[in-house]
Design brief:
Layout: H1 4-16, E1 35-39, E2 42-45, E3 50-53, H2 69-81, H3 90-102, E4 108-112, H4 115-130, E5 134-138, E6 151-152, E7 159-160, H5 167-170, E8 173-176, H6 181-191, E9 195-200, H7 216-226, E10 230-234, H8 247-252, E11 258-262, E12 272-276, H9 278-281, H10 300-315, H11 318-340, E13 345-349, E14 352-356, H12 397-401, H13 405-418, E15 421-422, E16 431-432, H14 439-452
Helix pairs in contact: 2-10, 3-10, 6-7, 11-14
The chain binds pyridoxal-5'-phosphate.
Length: 453
């Protein structure tokens, strides 16, 4: 595979763009391939190489690179009519109505321009609504490039995880380990009346894909309710992917007060959104006092793309298709892993999948020596306590960070790329099946995993 054009483009980019990229995860080693165009489930790079794509823009592209016809038509018409005005349009109302109809906890939605902006606004809203400053977040959780959540350390030792953030900001953020009920209880016992909100992804999806253990979100719901704090689900990645149109909250049956969205809800265009109960959302200006505004917010092209995207999913077998292929991939990879790398853990749900190169694990696929009868989650870790692999499954961000992350990045990812399979370049980011992927694509992918693992 030749990469001369990509190499030359990267060389130019390094002179004028910091690190040569506009989002840090794109700086793959030794240099990224530059994409010329998409084609269904594939991308073609500047040297004409074709890759089967499971990055899918890091989440937004539910349909792959070809827009369904109604999406294309709506995008083109709104782009040529405007493209934007600084005054409201009908399509913003249509999308907000659609979200309220399908997502259990949402009555009202404010649209913004990125997932980051959504979580920034949600944190401000929670602080304004409760009159409290502290936010509880999950270690290893991701809420975008925002000051309140770029923290590391434990509940009593939080510090900024990036230069440029005052240490005094991190004092207001309390990181706890995901899936650790006692840690959350302790924090509420000690500081419950200072906590504005718990902000968590329903599934840690930027850290290897970690599902909640039984009862975890239910307990967070009780704790927040008992202490007058809000529960905020960051569904930027799980929204309209896990659990279909009802999102992960519908699937888990836990109703947050506020939800943040992004990625799929903009149909491939820049987007974020904050949804929730009217009584809370109306605290935003101009109905309330918590400042929130944006030149491009509710952009008609984005709103049209998002609305047509979701309508198409409501009217076609989109989730059945992507979830079925996701299941086939996870089951197939789990079989390969059992043979070739039994310490590794297949993770994911619905149309998300990843293989975490966990270091600890049973030394054969015959977990616990129980033979054929031993129960394991065969399509990826479900955090099922009766599963023979349960103790080896990553439960939080630290477990994923302890995996063989360098092996993924320096060897496995590179080999898959050479085989024409484009995966997310580090151990932490999820991979996605789109409506454009086929059963043949899954077969090809499993063959490549078999050779590269
Ligand atoms: C992607 C993501 C964000 C950030 O969204 P951007 O649009 O990249 O700013 C926030 N939270 C979660 C859970 C995400 O997956």
């Amino acid at each position: 595979m030749r990469h001369d054009e990509s190499r030359a483009l990267y060389d130019r980019a390094l002179s004028v763009i910091p690190g040569g990229v506009n989002s840090s995860v794109r700086a793959t080693r030794p240099y990224p391939f530059f994409i010329e165009r998409g084609d269904g489930a594939h991308v073609v790079d500047a040297d004409g190489n074709r890759y089967l794509d499971y990055v899918m823009g890091y989440g937004p592209l539910l349909y792959g690179h070809d827009m369904p016809e109604p999406v294309r038509a709506a995008v083109q018409s709104h782009a040529s009519d405007g493209p934007m005005y600084g005054a409201p349009t009908e399509v913003e109302v249509e999308l907000a109505e659609f979200v309220a109809r399908h997502v259990p906890s949402v009555e009202m939605t404010r649209f913004v321009n990125s997932g980051t902006e959504a979580t920034v606004s949600a944190v401000r809203l929670a602080r304004g609504y409760t009159g409290r400053d502290k936010i509880v977040v999950m270690q290893g959780g991701y809420h975008g490039a925002q000051e309140s959540t770029l923290v590391e350390g434990g509940p009593d030792s939080s510090r900024p995880s990036s230069p440029g953030i005052p240490a005094s900001f991190a004092e207001h953020t309390i990181p706890v380990p995901f899936n650790d009920v006692e840690a959350a209880e302790r924090v509420f016992e000690e500081r419950g009346d200072e906590i504005a909100a718990v902000l968590t992804e329903p599934i840690l999806a930027n850290t290897g894909i970690v599902l909640p253990v039984d009862g975890y979100h239910e307990r967070l719901r009780e704790l927040t309710e008992d202490h007058g704090a809000l529960l905020i689900f960051d569904e930027v990645i799980t929204g309209f992917r896990v659990g279909g149109l009802q999102c992960a909250q519908g699937r888990f049956g836990v109703t947050p007060d506020v939800t943040t969205f992004g990625k799929i809800v903009g149909g491939g265009f820049p987007v974020g959104a904050i949804g929730g109960r009217a009584e809370i959302l109306e605290e935003f200006t101009p109905s309330g006092d918590v400042f929130q505004s944006g030149t491009f917010s509710g952009h008609p092209v984005t709103m049209a793309a998002g609305y047509e995207y979701l309508k198409y999913a409501a009217e076609n077998d989109v989730y059945e298709h992507v979830n079925r292929l996701g299941e086939r991939l996870r089951t197939g990879i789990a079989d390969i892993v059992a043979d070739q790398a039994p310490s590794y853990t297949v993770v994911g749900t619905d149309s998300m999948f990843k293989t975490v190169f966990t270091r600890e694990g049973p030394d054969s696929g015959d977990v616990g020596g129980a033979g054929e009868d031993s129960h394991v989650c065969d399509a990826g870790c479900r955090q099922d306590e009766s599963c023979a692999r349960y103790d080896y499954c990553p439960k939080n961000g630290a477990d994923v960070a302890n995996a063989e992350t360098e092996r993924w990045e320096r060897i496995f990812w590179q080999e898959m790329k050479e085989k024409g399979i484009f995966l997310t370049a580090n151990q932490f980011e999820s991979q996605f099946v789109s409506y454009s992927h086929t059963d043949e694509d899954v077969e090809e992918t499993l063959e490549a995993y078999k050779e590269a693992l």
